[in-house]
Amino acid sequence: MMQSLLEYFNITSTRDLIWLAVGLTAQLAFSMRFLVQWISSEKARKSVMPIAFWWFSICGGMLLLAYGIYRGEPVIILGQTFGIVVYFRNLWLIYAERRRATV
Q: What range defines the domain where residue 27 resides?
């Protein structure tokens, strides 16, 4: 069963298996941002976007981009490239606002 599942997903080498693990780890990191945002919002009793959301977005997005490049998936490559730019920009804006607030 496991062998046929690996064949179905075109996992034919140890390197492919390692990249599958990278892809699954990336998806987990990317999904963690929703859990972090949900917990933060529940604690605050309002919608909150914590900084950890953006860091998980960057980590997951970069790993998913690497996975997409390895697998030759243009949809993943395009989607994650644009997303990563947005995530970094949001962190830039957050940290710029904090710097202005401390001056």
A: 21-102
Q: How far apart are the C-alpha atoms of 30 and 59, rounded to whole Å?
A: 7
Residue with tokens 């970069």: 62
16: in domain: no
| Cα separation, 50 vs 19, whole angstroms | 29
Name 95's Cβ contacts closer than 8 Å, sequence gap at least 6.
Answer: none
Residue 51 exposed, middle or buried by CB count within 10 Å (0-12, 13-18, 19+):
middle
Whether residue 40 is contained in a domain is answered as yes
pLDDT digits (tens, 9 = 90+) for 45-102: 988 889 999 999 999 999 999 999 998 999 899 999 999 999 999 999 999 999 999 9
Q: What is the pLDDT of residues 35-52, one digit of tens each?
A: 999 999 999 998 888 999
Tokens of 81: 């490239």
Residue with tokens 């998806």: 27
**5, part of any domain:** no
